[in-house]
Amino acid sequence: MRDRLVQACTVLSLLMLPSAQAAMSTSWTGTVTHVTDGDTVWVRPMNGDAPRNIRIVGIDAPEICQPFGAEAKAALSNRVLGQYVQVRGHAVDQYGRQLARIQYQGQDVGAWMVSQGLAWSYGQQRHRGGYAAYEAQARQHQLGLFSQAQAEEPRRFRRRFGSCH
Q1: Is 139 a residue of the active site?
Q2: Does any domain span residue 5?
Q3: For residues 140, 119, 91 and 42, what is the CA-based torsion angle, rounded to 10 degrees?
């Protein structure tokens, strides 16, 4: 019985692979319909499909219950809510969100968030991520959350307190 279950799961995952692959490397335009927090938005594709949950790749904004979390969400809302954006998908995360770069009027929204001191550049292990130079400038000018000496990266915050949700 267990072997049949494993086989069925394997077949299903293989059947879903083409659609997962397509979601990884797509480029499309849509309207931002909702801002969840400083690094997650919902975008309705121009073709009329249902809005998609998009996690802006390369940044990590403060949790909504963390200092500067509400400010990051408000700034992102003011910038893109109701606006047409270009979405360049990379992958799908464990929560089903598409990981993507978002451009608004030709500007990278992730770069803008980090340069304003509203998010950290997010990388893996020792690599500081693609927006490290923007983060260094925001730190140097003590912008946004970088004006606080005790600003805590969201991943450390989540380890200590869990998610705000």
Answers
A1: no
A2: no
A3: -140
2 classed as catalytic:
no
Report whether pLDDT(9) > 50.
Answer: no
Angle (nearest 5°) at CA 128 between 69 and 106? 70
* CATH code of the domain covering residue 58: 2.40.50.90
Helix (H) or strand (E) holding 70: helix 69-80
Whether the full predicted model's pTM is greater than 0.90, yes or no, is no
Active-site hit among 52, 63, 79, 135: 63
Q: What is the dihedral of CA 140, 146, 150, 153, to 10 degrees?
A: -120
Is 97 one of the annotated active-site residues of the chain?
A: yes
3-state SS assignment for residue 78: helix
Catalytic-role residue among 52, 97, 101, 135: 97
For residue 9, is it within any domain? no
**Domain range for residue 79?**
19-159
Report the number of distinct structural domains present in the chain: 1
Q: Give the range among 4-18, 106-120, 135-149 with minimum mean pLDDT.
A: 4-18
> Distance between CA 37 and CA 157 in Å, rounded?
15
Residue 13 lies in a domain: no
- Do the beta carbons of residue 110 and residue 101 sit within 8 Å? yes
CA dist., res. 55 & res. 110, Å (int) = 10
In a domain, 3, yes or no: no
